[in-house]
């Protein structure tokens, strides 16, 4: 799929986790447990780890952001031990209903995730929808830096960058628009399971339209 990303046209941004697949699969619960286990390996008790995971997620939108601000961690190793260790192959399978819905959506489609790109890439491949997101025909930063499959349109939290942007931070929405090649915020639509992320998108839209 190749769409001219330089021309402004409506863009649907889809969150990945608990959005492209059902929360009933239990991936979020497994992910939270992996994060707690990571915290415990840092020397915390399980009780402390659970409380801090919840606090960092609430304060920063992502537990890793809290770890980076208050601890010394390797974010890429963190990703390998958390998202990268999830048994997704045993949980996810192709979703023909989702695929039909995406195929029928005749506009640009991008993934907009707080995860690092390998996790989202695994998800869309297992769901059988990895060809449903827009091809990037210009040399966007994420194509050059990580050599993503060229048919996947994805804006993600880049864990390699100190103080990287993630939802619900306004900078994350600006980054998503830039990488998707859309200048008019009124043409952007977000599908996300987080009320905080949706509310921030509304604020971003107003800010960018008045800029």
Automatic annotation (TrEMBL):
InterPro entries: HAD-like_sf (IPR036412), HAD-SF_hydro_IA (IPR006439), HAD_sf (IPR023214), Pyr-5-nucltdase (IPR010237), SSM1_domain (IPR052791). One of its GO terms (molecular function) is nucleotidase activity. Pfam families: Hydrolase. GO terms for biological process: nucleotide catabolic process; pyrimidine nucleobase metabolic process. This is Pyrimidine 5'-nucleotidase.
